[in-house]
Amino acid sequence: MQLREATGPAMVIRREDYTPPPFWIDRIELTFDLDPAKTRVLNKMVLRRNTEVPAQPLRLDGEELNLARVVLNGGGCSFKMDGDALVLGSLPEGPEPFELEIFTTCSPEKNTQLSGLYLSQGDFFTQCEAEGFRRITYFLDRPDVMASYTVTLRADKDKYPVLLSNGNLVEQGELPDNRHFAKWVDPHRKPSYLFALVAGRLISREQRIVTRAGKEHLLQVYVRPGDMDKTEHAMNSLIASVVWDEARFGLPLDLERFMIVATSDFNMGAMENKGLNIFNTKYVLANSATATDTDFANIESVVGHEYFHNWTGNRITCRDWFQLSLKEGLTVFRDQEFSMDLCAEPSARAVKRIEDVRVLRTMQFPEDAGPMAHPVRPDQYVEINNFYTVTVYEKGAEVVRMMQTLVGRDGFRKGMDLYFQRHDGQAVTCDDFAQAIADANPDSELARQLVPFKRWYSQSGTPRLQASGHYDAAERRYTLTLSQSCPATPGQSEKQPFVIPVTLGLIDAQGQDLALRLQGESQTSRGTRLLVLTQASESFAFEDIDAEPVPSLLRGFSAPVIVDNGLTDDQLLHLLAHDSDAFNRWEAGQQLALRRAVQAVRAEGPVGAAPLDEAFIGAMRAVLRHPTLDAALKELVLTLPAETYIAEQLDVVDPQRIHAVRETMREQLAQALQADWAWAYEQHKDNGAYRPDPLSSGRRALAGMALTMLCIAARETGDTVWPGKAYQRFKDAGNMTDRFNALSALVVSGQPLAQEALARFHAMFKDEALVIDKWFALQAGAPDRGGNVLPAVRQLMTHPDFNLKNPNRARSVIFSFCSANPAGFHRSDAAGYVFWSERVLELDAINPQVAARLARALDRWKKLAEPYRSAAREAIARVAAKSDLSADVREVVTRALAE
Ligand code: B3K
Ligand code: ZN
């Protein structure tokens, strides 16, 4: 375990303190002698003073490096160490370039943080974002310093036959002692966080493509030998990404060669290093036997995401890390649009939108209401890695989406064009982006409201939107009053109104969209239209309305807000049955379910056996049996709101009671619709040869859900037919989706056959790490029955396949339990919290980034009912009391305990 210095006050970095770098680094030539125990790094840089800022010493960032030599313009030079920084005071005074040569060594095999240069299964990989490059060499490790890179890699020929870095391979050859070298030149300037190297025994799938300009490009997907049969989908996704970015945004591939490399040891999903993307195997490897539909869809979107960074992030990068959402929010928006555009059917687009909104609501909304709440463009941080959050990513994407809504799809394209015209090759800010979109659309509401609109970047917290309708029969007028407010968040007690785009329709008694004309307008429009709320409260009067309509608000979820639409159950049922907007149909069903869940949780006494009424059950049956609705949409409508989402609706949270209520509701739906589930299963279970397209994956999802419901119903009646069928399906399935759904049906419903199936599954896939991750995760996330999951999790941690150092494996067991299994985790005996604190500390000594993510599992402790609340606070305090915590975990627990 590495020792850390006893902590003084945390170093807070503030956005307002930004100053441009005192030096520029124009060129860097790196030479690596790769060796697991001691890698030697020679760094030759050409620097010059930035004459626009007052002269000051050069402070180069470094971390865990052994410094051997510093040479200035070919001769010696004086330097000193200040903490981790290498400080050079006596440098040439003029603006002329000078050369600095720094020779260091580092130890990749000791690097368990997986930041900087590290080993994964014997191969070398790097991860430099945000501040990993300083763990490789001394540098101005900040995104606004962009340099041209030349990289030479030298290593043993047999152990590391493949040597990769960014850009183009310009030279390679033999060296003495069975070594070889490869020299790479990146034609694009880049910040240090986009540097990458890979060395190891790898094989690649290759594809040559010709882009619109007639240029040929080489695409490669590198994996370990034996994984080639799982690379086709990633390659297809990459090709689709290249085609899409050119078609939708006019952005071509700007490299002769584009590489993706997969590693099984990775802190997050993937990394957009210029021309050399490094991916977690989870987001590359897939075939029908080992990956589910969800895996296939995730691979498509992550491959797209990293590829789209090539322009949004790499060509135009962030001035400083406070601007992270400039690249992440925009690129998430782009990957969401990409996945939607690949859907042939409009309803599949809606399904994708629902899935994205579900992530926003179940993860970002709680973040925005908890101790780690921060604006999309944060104002301060201690450890930047803690700010790669759902707020920066997902809420950031919603902010970009609202801009598109306000200027229209074509207007948004114009805005992107202007953004690239102005800023290509630069490191810029979120303000620069918003300004470009507005300037390209001078007549838009965005341009008129740009200053207040940008509050979405500066104010944290989820706004509440309240709507109330009033119908005046005599005037044939429907008046909709929209009001907004936003709760206080850490460091922000007062909020100013947001600019909220509200997409809406009014629906008549027959379920048709009404023609809409606002007071003062001469034109009528049918269907959906856009209102923009800019004040704390505004009223909108619709004319020529013959009878009271039902408003369908925020269609497609046009703003990341919590809506109180004031609708009755009957009105929601009307929307569920008729809304022309598929998103709002789903939303109406969710609201109906949520009301019932909240009511049952709040009620006194034991949880009643039947929280659901006939009207709700009948509506669910109608959706399930609907002749034309998509299977994927049906599955989403019939899925009850998550326990964490139910918890967000309550001021005081009893996780056990919420779990009991949701389980009871699910049992009731399972039983009441038994015949319908059986029908749905038979109708959707056969789908021919496997293809991961939205239509057939929707059918598999619904069949899987039906099977789970039938096994749940069987548990109550003691019937063995459906569990038997599920077991048979598990054995015979032709693809992983059907097989895993059947296994999960047995585990989730607590069928005795589950144990046998789990053992069989492990034996079948023991050599497939990603499948074994699923096997662990399913058990750690299983519904808790009398506190049985925690002992099972402790048992799983002693399994020979468990490895705490591998982030995917740690996540599959520990995170599946602490972050995704509320009823298993929040135990009245506090044993879940004890387990959590042990794991946070244990992981922190290995990998602070992963530990800090886990630390966030107790973010919402203040909302918990007793005895959970006190026990959770004690557990957090226990972690905080450790003197040698990483800055990562320290920041999370300090904020959690703050008043
Ligand atoms: N940009 C990386 C994330 C880096 C995280 C550093 N802790 C992946 C992505 O968003 O595409
Ligand atoms: Zn990204």
UniProtKB/TrEMBL annotation:
It is an enzyme of class 3 (hydrolase). Residues 111-194 form the Aminopeptidase N-like N-terminal domain. Residues 461-564 form the Peptidase M1 alanyl aminopeptidase Ig-like fold domain. Its cofactor is Zn(2+). InterPro entries: Aminopeptidase_N-like_N, Aminopeptidase_N-like_N_sf, PepN_Ig-like_sf, Peptidase_M1, Peptidase_M1_dom, Peptidase_M1_pepN, Peptidase_M1_pepN_C, Peptidase_M1_pepN_C_sf. One of its GO terms (molecular function) is alanyl aminopeptidase activity. One of its GO terms (biological process) is proteolysis. Its EC number is 3.4.11.2. Residues 569-898 form the Peptidase M1 alanyl aminopeptidase C-terminal domain. Residues 234-441 form the Peptidase M1 membrane alanine aminopeptidase domain. It catalyses: Release of an N-terminal amino acid, Xaa-|-Yaa- from a peptide, amide or arylamide. Xaa is preferably Ala, but may be most amino acids including Pro (slow action). When a terminal hydrophobic residue is followed by a prolyl residue, the two may be released as an intact Xaa-Pro dipeptide. Keywords: Aminopeptidase, Hydrolase, Metal-binding, Metalloprotease, Protease, Zinc. Belongs to the peptidase M1 family. This is Aminopeptidase N. The gene is pepN.
